[in-house]
Here is the input.
Amino acid sequence: MNCDISIKRHNETNIVLDVKGSWLKNNLVDVNTKLQEISSNIDNISIIFDFENTNEIDSAGIILILSNMTTYINNNCHVTVINMTTSQKTLLLFYRQNKVSNKITLKKEKTNIFYKIGKTFYRYMISFVQFLNFVGENFYFFLQTLIHPSQIRFKAIVKQIDLSGIRALPIVILTSFLIGLVIAYQGAEQLQQFGANIFIVEMVSISVIRELAPMITAIVIAGRSASSFTAEIGTMKITQELDAMKTMGFEPSIFLVMPRVIALMIALPLIVFLADLVGIFGGMVVANLQLGISYTEFIDRIYTEVDIRHFLIGIAKAPIFGFIIAIIGCYRGFQVTGSTDSIGKYTTISVVNAIFWVIALNAIFSVLFTQIGI
Amino acid sequence: MSIVEVESVTTKFGINTIHDNVSFSVNKGEIFGILGGSGSGKSTILREIIMLEKVQSGNITVLNENINNISLKQANMLKQNWGVLFQFGALFSSLTVIENISVLLKEYTTLPDSLIQDIAYTKLKMVGLPTKAALLYPSELSGGMKKRVGLARALVMDPQLLFLDEPTSGLDPASAESFDRLIVDLRDMLNLTVVMVTHDLSTIQNALDRFIVFHDKKILFDGSYDDAVNLDHYAMKKFLKI
Here is the structure.
């Protein structure tokens, strides 16, 4: 069924419009343009909508006619309707009552480039200050729990170590094995050219235990745990669980943030230790296959040539990475507001921030430790 | 003429039987209530009727379509003929109020934007919301406003059939009453058939033409409020506080 509008009669004082067919929302596009054509060349005349040939009309059809009526009236025309059924008339009156003439639109912000730069910078600054506030607040509660150790949530810490540490082992083992493998494989090619095969041991061991194992592990954990911390805490905020906790006097800092931070600070050094072993093992496998260095030879040379300080530096960085990952994950979780899409937004931000800071801190440490000669 | 026909539906979750051989029907133009205590399966039967939950055994017919074996195309046609208002509005949180209302028109019709806006603003006013609420996001609305926006969204395609899940729960008595009145007015004006899950006593008295009460996996009662008052059953008395 189609709908149509046409001029039935037209004389000097009035126009009769024939509203034909089914005025349903699926076929109003053509009549909309026709109505606009009619409205463009009329002025100061009486317009009569004749509904004699109308089969059915829905809200979209009625609102379309009402919108055009308004235009006609604004053009000094007089509008009347005839031959409407009672139900059509009630609908027309009902929707006319609810017609909104002054729609509102969103004001566009100023798009000056300096304004934008300034605004972004200001936002970053505010966000940084808030982050420091958050860290400070948690440090305060940390000191408080040191005075009252019974407040420390040991069970929650153990649970978090399980969730964020132990469950992450398979993927950490796999990635660090592959890293050791790749380093050794690429190194072997080059070292073979100089006949310096045995130096593969120092190359793999130092790079893995000092830099790569801590960083790769931290990145994997950042991807896993920072996101889950943000999503968990963010969901708790939306469902008002956080509010409930606060009213019961359960400080979210002690119940949620500290267990996660402490868990990662404990778990990460241990995982890094394992990643060291697996990474070196990956190198050993390649050294054995590619360069013919036996496993015992490899391990002996680690003992004699690789300083313990490299290992210690690598391990020492781990708790710092753990701290930064957990604190960023939790902080972004608390920033979640109202809507569900803000969980997605802050989870993304949290992972990106956590990975960035792991890499940035690693770079700072690398330069710092080399400069002071350890 | 019955709009919704539920025939001997049985639902089990694991070993838990929710409905045991339940049948009822909803007539055209009625405001029909599905009542029952918490966990009595009233929301479940609604979810089965609106095809969110699969019917395990029995038949459900909605607008002359048997939803047990319905093609994807028919199901989509059917879904445009009903509107659903969820308990907490279920508005899309990334869209503004006016976008929430107009999303169906944008997806399913080729109407020009200005007309879509006209329709959406009219429906917004129709459910009793001020124009200035149009550009707010759902997180900025109160519970009652969310429900009204949800109602406007459910009505935007001019459905014949409207499903409401606890429309007045969480509203203050005055808002609840005005919401009930709105539903009745809209039914009279737009020839709707309304099916609602509720346990609000004033809604039961003021808005419903007829209702069923779930009790112990079965339908305990099917009729109007006046009949229910006269029924001598402890569960009914407890339920209706008489």
